[in-house]
Design a protein that fits this description.
It is a single chain. With 178 residues, the protein is of the alpha+beta class. 39% of the residues lie in helices and 24% in strands. The chain contains five helices and seven strands. The chain has a seven-stranded antiparallel β-sheet, with helices on both faces. Strand 6 and strand 7 form a beta hairpin. Helix 1 runs antiparallel to helix 4 and helix 3 packs antiparallel against helix 5.
């Protein structure tokens, strides 16, 4: 089996085994909605981080309503969007999304999930945080909080975009844990 297909198969198996269903095997705290959100103040803090990362002035907009809050930051040559889903079974939606990503894009390595360590919940194969290089988007889940972070900065190489996106996602999890 070619390496990209093998990697995609491994990710799909890990996600399938990682809890796509609600069998009751996970602790209740991982299944129940927690109502976390990104407040307007959280969005301002995230925007300040983006401004430091890009070295460019920014403007930001917040939609702080739980369970689907959002923060958008943009400026000349960049756009960063973070969405926090803390509704019931956000974790399952994340897993389903990653399985679908593999199913529909297995032939293109840039469009399948690439595991990212140190962002989502700890797990075998780090499958609770996934970077899709073709879309410069990081998906990660902790407990019942699913963050989707689209990170587009003109002229910035993909590895650097991933590092910046991972740092912002970790910050988003810290801010939404309060």
């Amino acid at each position: 089996m070619p390496r990209p297909r093998l990697a995609a198969a491994v990710v799909a198996c890990a996600l399938a085994l990682g809890g796509c269903g609600s069998s009751g095997s996970e602790p209740p705290s991982r299944q129940e909605a927690i109502g976390a959100r990104l407040s307007a103040g959280d969005c301002a803090r995230l925007a300040a981080t983006v401004a430091r990362q890009t070295g460019r002035p920014e403007r930001h907009q917040s939609e702080p309503t739980a369970p689907n809050s959002r923060c958008e930051v943009e400026g000349r040559g960049f756009h960063v969007s973070m969405t926090l889903d803390s509704a019931h079974e956000a974790r399952r939606r994340y897993s389903n999304r990653m399985v679908e990503q593999v199913q529909f894009n297995a032939s293109d390595p840039a469009k399948v999930p690439h595991a990212v360590a140190g962002v989502g919940d700890e797990s075998a194969y780090n499958h609770y945080a996934s970077w899709i290089p073709a879309y410069s988007t990081l998906y990660a889940v902790r407990g019942n909080r699913w963050i989707t972070l689209a990170y587009s900065v003109a002229g910035e190489p993909r590895p650097q975009r991933l590092r910046q996106a991972a740092a912002l996602t970790r910050q988003g999890f810290r801010l939404s844990a309060r």
